[in-house]
Write a structure and sequence with these properties.
Chain lengths: ~110, ~110
Amino acid sequence: GEDVEQSLFLSVREGDSSVINCTYTDSSSTYLYWYKQEPGAGLQLLTYIFSNMDMKQDQRLTVLLNKKDKHLSLRIADTQTGDSAIYFCAENNYGQNFVFGPGTRLSVLP
Amino acid sequence: NAGVTQTPKFRVLKTGQSMTLLCAQDMNHEYMYWYRQDPGMGLRLIHYSVGEGTTAKGEVPDGYNVSRLKKQNFLLGLESAAPSQTSVYFCASSYSTKGGGAFFGQGTRLTVV
């Protein structure tokens, strides 16, 4: 079945770049997503990438997709304390729902 | 524009009690979902709906029932609550599964004692 894996924790210094990684097993995944969850809140869609793309950039966010290795990454440039949150990778293959990873807790140290 | 609204936000139940969680969306989305979030396990799909009057089982449907009588509402029911159902429940909706992603409510924190 479909499975999405992420490392559970990441710590970075304020001002550095953060790279959050994700691997997925479903080779037919068509869309891949990054969500952000702040404490006590729901998930907020940050960005998504279609599987025929290698990269997508949106202000401080860069998404890289290696379809051959089924690897997705989210780079946050100039990480700020407000970026501290849990980041979820998710995939969809034109199915009727989304499959989420366990989430990576990003801690930004001053 | 409210997006996805869940009620209630918090609830404490005794084992064996029943309750209904309400989800409402104002984006005219076809798809709606109920997830539960537990520490270290990410989000697990309970039930979902691909349109008014339809429902389907997700990954962890046991102990839950759902109804989608109106397009904008998706109800999650617990007939006889168990401590294992202590969790944070999220409702989400999406226009389709072809891009765009899902929009989430703020969550319902349920404790069963």
